[in-house]
């Protein structure tokens, strides 16, 4: 496994995009394998979360942490159960909207190289996740409506974009 990075331009203001992404209630909308995220309390500078989902035809449950830095429009996360899994994203202002830059770090489990996805598959899964973020934020009733509390039930579901590299339990 290793490190993976990607970015996507979104035709919405950076503050709106970050607010949408940092709200854990929205994570199942843009992370294709995630079906539920529950807060588990605040510890120091981060929030603990429990994540449930389905990847490669089986369910998973993981507990991890999420640190949001609204002033910098940056988030970092990791898993308590999957050693070597973590990531970050940053939303920056750009002409015509914003840019979301996503980074993942996935350390190999013993035996994972023989059974897990390769680098090209992981990069493709990361790109599908970025496409899902773009679709959710740019859809009518997307991130801007979420910011004002209107239209959040009308956001598209991300699962048509395929599985995500971000919470694959086989990595």
From TrEMBL:
SUPFAM superfamilies: Bet v1-like. Residues 142-171 are annotated as: Disordered. Residues 142-152 have a biased composition (Low complexity). It holds the Pfam family Polyketide_cyc2. It comes from the Bacteria. Residues 161-171 have a biased composition (Polar residues). Transmembrane segments: none annotated. This is SRPBCC family protein. It comes from Roseicella frigidaeris.
């Amino acid at each position: 496994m290793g490190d993976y990075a990607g970015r996507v331009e979104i035709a919405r203001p950076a503050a709106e995009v970050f607010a949408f992404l940092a709200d854990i209630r929205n994570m199942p909308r843009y992370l294709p394998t995630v079906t539920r995220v529950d807060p588990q309390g605040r510890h120091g500078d981060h929030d603990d979360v429990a994540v449930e989902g389905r990847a490669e035809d089986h369910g998973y449950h993981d507990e991890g942490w999420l640190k949001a830095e609204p002033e910098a429009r940056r988030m970092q996360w990791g898993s308590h159960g999957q050693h070597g899994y973590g990531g970050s994203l940053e939303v920056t202002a750009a002409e015509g909207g914003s840019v979301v830059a996503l980074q993942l770090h996935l350390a190999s489990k013993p035996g994972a190289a023989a059974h897990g996805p390769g680098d090209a598959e992981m990069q493709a899964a990361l790109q599908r996740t970025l496409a899902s973020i773009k679709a959710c934020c740019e859809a009518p009733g997307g991130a801007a409506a979420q910011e004002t509390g209107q239209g959040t039930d009308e956001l598209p579901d991300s699962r048509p974009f395929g599985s995500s590299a971000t919470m694959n339990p086989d990595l």
